[in-house]
Amino acid sequence: MLDHYNIITLGNCSIYRVYESEKSDNVIHRSYVIHRCYKFTFLRRDDIEIGPCYTQKEWRGKGIYPATLTYIVGNEISGKECAYMMVDTKNYSSQRGVIKAGFEMVGEISKSKMLKIYKIIDKM
């Protein structure tokens, strides 16, 4: 099932889609990958930010989210680059999936109100 990904590139953003099966057009998970841009001041040249991510309700709890994150990191990161994710502190399910995929908390993020620019405000 998880070998059927569709990757769409839009400028500096890639969209990963996971399908129910090779014969189905039902998208069960979607993850966005954003490369360095003005909104993410903490990203270095080849770093990425993953998100937002969404798994259809009937497919949650089946390991699709962490498997997709692992797949994305394997395809997008090759050496010294980093993959970042912003996860709401109240979204425990997402936190579990991110940890299963090997991510760890490195700090807190703030977003400016006018230009919606993200920056790390508190490193762990």
How would you explain this protein's 3D organization?
This protein is an alpha+beta fold. It has one domain (5-123): Gcn5-related N-acetyltransferase (GNAT) (Aminopeptidase), CATH 3.40.630. Helices cover 18% and strands 35% of the residues. It has helices spanning 64-76, 92-100, and strands spanning 5-10, 13-19, 27-35, 48-55, 83-85, 107-111, 118-123. A hairpin with a 6-residue loop joins strand 6 (107-111) and strand 7 (118-123). The N and C termini lie far apart (36 Å). The mean pLDDT is 84.
- Helix and strand composition category: alpha+beta
CATH architecture: 3-Layer(aba) Sandwich
- Low-pLDDT runs: none
Radius of gyration: 15 Å
**Percent of residues in helical segments?**
10-25%
CATH class: Alpha Beta
The total of beta strands comes to 7
Averaging pLDDT over every residue, what do you get? 84
Strand content: 35-45%
Looking at this structure, what is the CATH superfamily?
Gcn5-related N-acetyltransferase (GNAT)
Number of helical elements: 2
CATH topology: Aminopeptidase
In short:
The chain is α+β, with helices and mostly antiparallel strands and 124 residues long. It is built from two helices and seven strands; from the N terminus they run ββββαβαββ.
